[in-house]
Amino acid sequence: MNTSKTASKYDRFSKVYDLFESPMERRAFSKYRARALSLAEGKVLEIGVGTGKNFPYYPQNVDVIGIDFSRGMLEKAERRRRELGLKNVKLLLMDAQNLEFEDEGFDTIVSTFVFCTVPDPIRGLKEAYRVLKPGGRAIFLEHMKSESRLLNIPLYLMDPVMRTLTGTSTIRETQRNIEIAGFRIEHVENLFFDIVRLIIATKPLGG
């Protein structure tokens, strides 16, 4: 599926996105976000900002640029930014696979539940690697294929439905893709079995 088709799906889905995810957000995702975003420092690029669900969890002393390829999602994010009175957050319409930033411009990269949807995830991850400063930190909160065959059964069953609705895959090997893109993984925390993982990675000095 190409980027424009996926973006169009999210433009339509943006109207009910927060409502659709609200049960998971209340029970688990909000805690996961708080844990992940507490690690952000300096100049931050959030890839796939969506409706701005991460905004309440950022430390006050960071400057955030949030990008998304869906205008509908960005409109929701801008509304949330204004409601929270955040002056340190800027939003841009942009494709994760073609970041319009110079090399090595960010101290922290943030991605939460995004690289299950980017049409070419390795290309997107390589772009994230490119714009991260050497020694910088990348924070990935992502769901992905499990190491357990048993746990993968429902993921494989859900995958065709999710691909049709949102372009999202439930069976991507995102941790492996992060390494392929060049990142050095420093820490992996399994949050819901190993289907939802918090992955902290760095760009090696000289990388």
Automatic annotation (TrEMBL):
GO annotation, biological process: methylation
Keywords: Methyltransferase, Transferase
GO MF entry, a single one: S-adenosylmethionine-dependent methyltransferase activity
InterPro entries linked: Methyltransf_11, SAM-dependent_MTases_sf, Thiol_S-MT
Domain Methyltransferase type residues, every copy: 45-140
Protein name (Swiss-Prot/TrEMBL): Methyltransferase domain-containing protein
Originating organism: Thermococcus aciditolerans
